[in-house]
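Predict structure. Chain length: 657.
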Amino acid sequence: MKRVGLFLLCTLFLLVTSCGKKMQSAERVSDSAKAQISVEPVQGLSEDFMRGVDISMVAEIEKLGGAYYDENGKSADVFQILKKHGVNWVRLRLWNNPVNDYNVVEGGVTISKKGDPVGGGNNSIDVDIALAKRAKKAGLKILLDFHYSDFWADPEKQKKPQEWKNLSGDALCEAVEDFTKTTLQKFYKAGVCPDMVQIGNETNNGMLWPDGKINPVTKTDVDIGGMDGFIKLLKSASRGVRTAGTWGTDIKIIIHLADGGKNALYRTIFDAVTAAQVDFNIIGLSFYPYWHGAFDDLTANMKDLRSRYGKDMVVVENAYAYTWDDGDNTGNMFSLYSDEAHGYIPSVQGQATEVRDCIAAVSSVDGGLGMFYWEPAWIPVDGAGWRTGENSAWDNQAMFDFYGNVLPSLSVFNLVYGRGQVQNVWGGSASSVQSFEPYKSSESVKLLVMPGQVPPLPQKAKVVFTDDSERLVPVTWDEHDWKSETEDKTVTIYGTTQEGFRVTCVVELSSIVNLLKDPSFESGTLDEWTLDGSPVLFYACEDKGNAHSGTWAYHYWDNGAFNGTLSKTFTGLENGMYTFSAWSEGGGGENALYLFAKNYGASEVLTVDVVDTGWQVWKKYELHIPVTNGQATVGFVVDGIAGNWGNFDDVMFYKEK
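Prediction complete.
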């Protein structure tokens, strides 16, 4: 896992008296730590179900001044806090030699030099052994995650360690086997032998590129090892585990892919791996709902994997946000998960519910051993970032607030058994309940039909329940005489769910004909438009949290200065007055952001400035265009500075009455 925080943590002073050291108390606390949440127990959950967390950043965070506080507001060892709240496993990523092999330059500025620690936890063997000792002391089991790289390895990059850059073929396989073996021997000698290991991290397209790269990605990928190269490396890694000592046969081996709902991907990889008789025990999956979809997709994939290969399975990465806030003013990578039938509010309650549902999904499948939450302790501490010289974008997905105070959501690992109720000193709490009720609509239902036409009211509506989950539920709509509606107007119709909750649907009756075929970009393309700009920066984006309606919108963003124009020319128009309109939301602050119209029969370019003021603060902007030559060109201009982002949606171009 690696995709891109940090609010400077308040300085903590160790109070010393003549009697010795006193326990530190939290000096600041967020509203999130005061949340009162509830969790539905998971029926029949095994006591040995793996309730794990990836805790790889902890050493670096503590080194840079970070600290953790329990529900009493007292500083405590983070591993003890985790254990008390129901965690029974920890996962540690391992890099071969986590130092820069070149100067890292961004925007013309060197942010870290060759030979500096890479950042991201700097998880060397020594760092991980020290963390493993603390985990074992707390009574936690250990999953060691070999990346076989000096830095992040994931589906987008699998770079060889610098020491192995000139190795290939048998020599590289020998290096992999030897490194795996000697690493485990060091852990064993230190008294912290891992209970489980991953041989590679998110290896969708292999590892140790190019030797272990399965499929070409660019035109330069002409000399890659393919599936055979990947399998040879997996076998070498597996031998390293088994030959580390007589105890090596007891260590469970995971082969790990991302995209846990993509069954075709998993079949492709594991058909080949099992046919080659690679020695492994467990299939590892990453599953983040906002990237990978609904838990239904995860369980469907897991059931097929169990039936097809007979292997046990573990979700080794999962996470969700507890807030939209940013602890370090550098932005968060989180995006809202909300599809047509499911979703979670980014809140302490929503975070706990997402984890609970992940546990329920995995445990419902035969062979589903457990799940790991990714980096719940990555709080914002200056310097503890994705790499040296940068910050994190993960702080709003931790299970401690920005000041290190444990959140009620961490108690989910106990509450799934109906135990471990918590009341903290700030008024926050966590408890178990058996059911939840709807309390608000997830989104307003909007329809557009001609006057006199009966609207296709949906049979179900999505509402938010008190566990901050979004669910699609049946609805019965009130009666209305639609055929008697003969004028353009807006009608609000009400419906009732089975729980007695009232929902609304706004029906716009309009005789206006929109000349745009795909006004909400639901095709997922900009094919109806002409883009003068980079398609990497300007594109149709699928993200319901950033769509005014539907799930797609026209999106722009970059981490440097950028500009672009999206336009469309209409010809064969009947002369007269036309309206060009669009809904917009975004962060604001661009050099220029506006709608325009030109070539409509006059030399003047008509414009209307767009002023965005925040996420989901949608505003409608429109131009009125006097067409006299049977044509018009309309569009959007963005002249942005680093970090600007925004979305346009529900665009209209029509002839006024």
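Summary: Residues 169-189 form the longest helix (21 residues).
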